[in-house]
């Protein structure tokens, strides 16, 4: 039986996160945490011609580590949105489903969000819509060190610098654009899976 999960909001989350959310009977998004550096909260990985491409959203200077997650603000000193979109086009322009999903995704990269939370939420909603998923999700209202009984705590469990939890190591294998050059690259952004195989998850 699927159980509810508790997970942080991430930038174009990795496949493992989307699989966990899609398979849960309820998703609690952690809205009361403080920002943590070095996580998927403001970065994602794509499969590009030269291998893994790392995209990172610049944040306004300050002590983000102590800042409530919903108050972390995005910096626009550099044209990072145009750069990220160009990276996505370069990586997936020849993928089977780019032309299908790109028209709805490109406007997101032309709109400004003040906060990282607002930005990540808009892209998560886009991914779920594209995959045809209807999440039963809600935001946490208070910070709790441990998840309530019956809820699987995945906060920081899916992390660029940590091995995946045992329950999420058997991820879907699908054809990737540059698989002939680099082999299969697991647990990239779920955008990779969307562009390469479409709605099926």
Structural topology:
Blueprint: E1 5-7, H1 15-23, E2 27-29, E3 43-48, E4 51-56, H2 80-92, H3 98-105, H4 116-131, E5 137-139, E6 152-153, H5 179-182, H6 190-197
Helix pairs in contact: 1-6
Question: What report would you give on this structure?
Answer:
- The protein is an alpha/beta fold and 201 residues long.
- The chain is 29% helix and 11% strand.
- The chain has one domain (5-197).
- The strands form 2 sheets. It has a 4-stranded parallel sheet with strand order 5-2-1-6, covered by helices on one side.
- Helix 1 (15-23) links the parallel strand 1 (5-7) and strand 2 (27-29).
- The mean pLDDT is 94.
Brief summary of the model shown:
The protein is an alpha/beta fold and 201 residues long. It is 29% helix and 11% strand. The chain has one domain (5-197).
């Amino acid at each position: 039986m699927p159980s509810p999960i508790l997970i942080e909001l991430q930038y174009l989350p990795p496949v493992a996160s989307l699989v966990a959310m899609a398979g849960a009977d309820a998703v609690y998004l952690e809205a009361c945490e403080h920002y943590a550096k070095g996580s998927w909260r403001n970065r994602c990985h794509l499969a590009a011609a030269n291998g893994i491409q790392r995209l990172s959203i610049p944040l306004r200077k300050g002590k983000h580590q102590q800042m409530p997650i919903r108050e972390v603000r995005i910096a626009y000193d550099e044209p990072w949105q145009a750069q990220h979109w160009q990276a996505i086009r370069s990586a997936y322009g020849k993928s089977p489903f780019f032309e299908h999903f790109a028209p709805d995704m490109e406007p997101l990269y032309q709109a400004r969000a003040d906060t990282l939370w607002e930005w990540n939420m808009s892209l998560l909603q886009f991914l779920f819509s594209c995959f045809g998923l209807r999440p039963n999700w809600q935001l946490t209202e208070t910070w709790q060190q441990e998840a309530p009984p019956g809820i699987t705590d995945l906060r920081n469990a899916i992390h660029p610098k940590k091995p995946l939890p045992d329950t999420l190591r058997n991820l879907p294998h699908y054809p990737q654009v540059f698989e002939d050059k680099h082999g299969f690259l697991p647990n990239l952004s779920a955008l990779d899976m969307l562009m390469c195989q479409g709605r099926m998850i």
